[in-house]
């Protein structure tokens, strides 16, 4: 997929309330979203961006099956035996936020905070901010100051 330099953002695709879908529905929805992204030339981080490092390419290929990330959110902490879990309660039991069998939050968090943080900063600064700055300098009348 060709990167469009006129884009000023670095989108990371996330499916909210991932626990409302069955595994089959989640897989089909992921495929539909990927097709929509490709049809509309939307570059999703990290899979749509070229990498020069083989280690980063390996990490990206491991993440590819989980993009877009199906996550769940909860602020409730439940006790299950001696363990304290961040989870959401349903009729069927607890849906654990940090359980990879329940959602992709662990992969999402690891990508954002642990493995790709520096790359996200660099791409945002070097590609997206610079594209925005160039466009702003070339067409200052399009970006008139709003009432502040």
From TrEMBL:
A matching Pfam family: Septin
GO molecular function list: GTP binding
Coiled-coil positions: none
Occurrences of domain Septin-type G (ranges): 1-139
PANTHER family tied to this protein: SEPTIN
Protein name: Neuronal-specific septin-3-like
Organism of origin: Oopsacas minuta
């Amino acid at each position: 997929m060709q990167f469009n330099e006129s884009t000023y953002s670095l989108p990371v695709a996330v499916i909210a309330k991932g626990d409302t879908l069955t595994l089959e529905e989640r897989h089909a929805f992921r495929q539909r979203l990927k097709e929509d992204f490709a049809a509309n030339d939307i570059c999703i981080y990290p899979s749509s961006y070229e990498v020069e490092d083989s280690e980063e390419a390996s990490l990206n290929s491991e993440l590819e099956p989980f993009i877009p990330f199906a996550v769940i959110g909860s602020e409730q902490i439940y006790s299950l035996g001696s363990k304290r879990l961040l989870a959401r309660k349903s009729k069927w039991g607890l849906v654990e936020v940090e359980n990879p069998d329940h959602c992709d939050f662990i992969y999402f968090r690891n990508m954002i905070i642990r493995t790709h943080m520096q790359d996200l900063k660099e791409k945002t600064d070097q590609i997206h901010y610079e594209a925005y700055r160039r466009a702003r300098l070339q067409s200052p009348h399009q970006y008139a100051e709003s009432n502040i």
